[in-house]
Amino acid sequence: MNGDERRAKIVKILKSAVGPISGTDLAKELGVSRQIVVGDIALIRANGTDIFSTNRGYYLNKSKNQPVSKVLKCYHTVEQAEDEMNTIVDLGGKIDDVFVYHKVYGVIKADMNIKSRYDVKQYLDAIKSGKSKLLMSITSGYHYHTISAESVEILERIKEAMSEKGYLAPLTDYEPVDF
Known about the structure:
This protein is of the alpha+beta class. The chain has helices at 3-16, 23-30, 34-46, 81-90, 117-129, 152-164, and strands at 51-54, 57-60, 68-75, 94-102, 106-114, 142-149. 40% of the residues lie in helices and 23% in strands. Helix 1 packs across helix 3 (34-46), helix 2 (23-30) crosses helix 3 (34-46) and helix 4 packs antiparallel against helix 5. It is globular, with a radius of gyration of 18 Å.
């Protein structure tokens, strides 16, 4: 795991934490020294993430209405891609990225930043106008989206709607569970 991946993991751990997490606990979880964690926290802060330090550990400042996010494993046809993306944005979600987990190549990821029907149309028009295909095409329709929203409730509504439409897929044995 390189430094960028480790710092992303620290933010993910802090986002999901109920209370402060000590530097020692983070170091154990990541397999590095506490001093590395302290340096990583400084870099994360320098990049604009609001992290508080207390005598009990680190925690994120969640009072600024920071968005929450969730990774969904999806499966559908190319023709259903527009409906899938519109479902997400219509319910208040933002599609941060798309990625596939390929058995040979590993994770292949692309940022999307789609938050409206207009963005969906622009994205699909760009795909149609070029010689490129949707990333999901290399894994027979299976792909993942990181979805962000203003609340966990919005994410749950998106997940429920995606499930009702048959767009969610279960993880398989070879896939990493923690993205």
